[in-house]
Structure formats: structure tokens, C-alpha cells
Design brief:
With about 270 residues, the chain is α/β, with parallel strands linked by helices. It has ten helices and ten strands.
């Protein structure tokens, strides 16, 4: 699933802006695309680039950020300060590799956009996609814990790995169960904010696990998101009758998963912004 992100600019020379435009055109075939917006449209930007070597640009951005402080900022500079842990920098000169790596990092960490992380997908990933997943995993490990705890129940290792990265990007801590019996054991010991549950499990199936979750005192109000490869009305009806709050058919794209998190955990969905 492709997506275009709008880039607002404060400062930068005409040549640098032209360089950015050329880079974005060269990268137009990627699933993460970028486009520069005009000055009056900067409030619609997904990311802003600010020339931190230009005091006028910094002042203009500070005035802008008073009303638009949720837009992530990348500071463009010739020399990155030694203490720069809290800020994101893009070093001059602007090269294709530097620009795309920096913007991709923001898109992953702030906008949680990792289209390579399709839950339950079987597509063979190319070298670039695998590199992005490694970056996403590294970024996920750096996100501060949100205090939200989730349980993922699925016997497929690929699903558990993709869910591990995606949920960590929201600051969640995650327990994993491979069978229905393990899941029931977990819910008897811990309280979860959300549970992702596959239907086809070894031993006890997801429907029975869901009924157990909803009948348990500590988990009866916990949102249960059913993940399954089946998509018939009968399966959805059966899942609803078992107490599932929502039903997602695999392969599940990151945007769909993000929508579910936003629906049931709105405070968590805003992490990083």
C-alpha cells in the first residue's frame, strides 16, 4: 500500500529545495513517497524541514509551531550537535540516501507507517524491504513504554514477529502465546489492554479462547481483535458471538491495524506525535 507524505519547508536555499524535488521524483516508485507543499499549505504537512543554520527560518518555524506543534520536525544543518538525542537532524549536503533514510525514519517512528509489516502476508521481501524492517525493529526498541500491555495469540512465527515490531512502535509491551491453552494461562495471570487472537490455533481454537476471555473477571472488558485467514460472514458471526470486538482478515496491512489501535486505544495511537 503506497502513501504520499507532505513535506513543509522553513528556510533552505533554492538549490536545496530543487535537490529535494529531484530526490522525491527519483523515489516516486517507492511505497513511501514525498512531496513538497507550498508555504500556505505547510499546516497540512506530515513532516517539516527547518534550516537550523538560518535564524530567520528558526524564528518562522517557532511561530508556526505554536499552533502546529504536533507536526514532526527535521532540522537541516551542516554540523549535527554532539547532544542531539531529542531532535532529528538531516546533515548537509542533501543526498538521496541521507534524505530518504531520515524521512523514512520519521515516517516509521512517528506515523507508524511500515507497509512491509503485513500481518500474515507470505510475500517474499526484497533487500530494501528487509532493510526497512531492520530499521523499524531498531526504532521500535527505542520507543518509550506507554504502560499499555497487549497479548498476541498466534502460532505463526511471522505473525508474532510483525506484531512485535508494530505494537512496540506504539510503546506497548507484548506477551505472546502460540496455543489457546497458553493464552488462557496468560489471561489468568495478567491484565491486558488489548488482545490479538488468531482463530486457527493448535488445541483450543480462537472462538473458545475468546469466550474464555470474555467470561474471565480480569479480561471480560478487554478488547479482543480476531486475526484470521478466513473471511466468510459465518466466521465473522461466530467470532462476534464468541465476544470478539472486531474482526480482521489476514493479511492485515499496517494501516488497518493502526485504525483498530486508534479505535480502542486512542491515547496510545498518538504516541510519537
Amino acid at each position: 500500500m503506497d502513501k504520499t507524505f507532505k513535506i513543509g519547508i522553513f528556510g533552505l536555499t533554492v538549490n536545496e529545495q530543487n535537490t529535494l524535488g529531484s530526490i522525491f521524483k527519483l523515489a516516486a516508485s517507492r511505497n513511501r513517497r514525498y512531496v513538497i507543499v507550498n508555504v500556505p499549505e505547510r499546516e497540512t504537512a506530515d513532516i517539516v524541514l527547518v534550516d537550523s543554520d538560518d535564524s530567520n527560518a528558526l524564528n518562522e518555524w517557532r511561530s508556526f509551531s505554536v499552533h502546529h506543534n504536533s507536526i514532526p520536525v527535521v532540522l537541516v544543518t551542516k554540523s549535527i550537535p554532539a547532544e542531539s538525542a531529542k531532535d532529528i537532524y538531516l546533515r548537509r549536503p542533501l543526498t538521496l540516501k541521507r534524505v530518504l533514510e531520515t524521512l523514512d525514519k520519521v515516517v516509521i517512528e512517528v506515523h507508524k507507517y511500515v507497509p512491509e509489516l503485513v500481518v500474515g502476508g507470505e510475500e517474499v521481501l526484497d533487500e530494501e524491504a528487509n532493510a526497512v524492517l531492520l530499521d523499524a525493529a531498531s526504532s521500535a526498541d527505542k520507543i518509550l513504554p506507554s504502560g499499555v500491555k497487549s497479548l498476541v495469540v498466534d502460532d505463526a512465527l511471522s505473525v508474532r514477529k510483525s506484531m512485535d515490531i508494530q505494537l512496540k512502535l506504539f510503546g506497548m509491551t507484548i506477551d505472546f502465546a502460540e496455543t489457546g491453552e497458553e493464552a488462557i494461562d496468560f489471561i489468568g495471570k495478567s491484565v491486558y489492554d488489548i488482545i490479538f487472537l488468531d482463530i486457527m490455533l493448535p488445541g483450543i481454537d480462537g472462538y473458545k479462547v475468546c469466550r474464555e476471555i470474555k467470561s474471565h473477571k480480569m479480561s471480560k472488558n478487554t478488547p479482543v481483535v480476531m486475526l484470521t485467514g478466513k473471511g466468510s460472514r459465518f466466521d465473522k458471526l461466530k467470532g462476534t458471538m464468541a465476544g470478539a470486538n472486531i474482526y480482521l482478515t489476514k493479511p492485515v496491512e499496517p494501516e488497518k491495524l493502526k485504525e483498530v489501535i486508534k479505535q480502542f486505544l486512542p491515547n496510545v495511537a498518538s504516541i510519537g506525535k
